[in-house]
Amino acid sequence: MDNMNGMTITAVNSVFYLTVPGLYPAPVKIEGYSTDAAISMAQRNPVIAQVGVDGHTSFGLVMTNKEITVTLSADSPSLRLFEDWAAAQDALREVLLCNAEFTLPAIGRKYVGSRGGMTAVQDMPVVAQTLQASAFVITFDKWESSPV
Fold first, then answer.
1. CATH class of 15-147
2. Residues 36, 98: contact at Cβ < 8 Å?
3. Tell me: the pLDDT tens digits for 34-82?
4. Across the strands, what pairs with 98?
């Protein structure tokens, strides 16, 4: 297939893998995303700007975490991974970190997250007329992009 060397905005061919050493040591493909959301990256603020009393603005770089939200449909087979991960942390009374790889062929980019902790857990779907999607937040130490 030739799209005339142009990029597209296709998301259906994206692939997301997580590893949780000690629990899921081999990469596990995440599947069954929500209808309107899959993976979203939170905006971060790496620069602090302060204006002194004389009107001069000073800037400083601050290190920030990289936070993604993974939103899964209520019938996603990947919900088990997040449930197991949360349950294992509770049982161990310790943090289990993960690594991630997210590939977006449509724009020719791959993103690799390292030292990620699950910082928000939705323990069950919202029950309404139908079961609603569940969201999980993973905060990474590093999130780096490269060409595919």
1. mainly beta
2. no
3. 988 899 999 999 999 999 999 999 999 999 999 999 999 999 999 999 9
4. 116
Question: Is 115:121 a contact under the CB 8 Å cutoff?
Answer: no
Residues paired with 69 in a beta bridge:
40, 137
Q: Output the six-digit token pair for 56.
A: 């001069």
DSSP the chain: ---TT------TT-EEEEEETTTEEEEEE---B-SS-SEEEPP---EEEEE-TTS-EEEEE----EEEEEEE-TT-TTHHHHHHHHHHHHHHTS---EEEEEEEGGGTEEEEEEEEEEEE---S--BSSSBPPEEEEEEEEEEEEEE-
In residues, how long is the chain?
Answer: 148
d(CA 66, CA 137): 10
The CA dihedral of 77, 80, 83, 84, to the nearest 10 degrees, is -160
pTM for this model (two decimals): 0.91
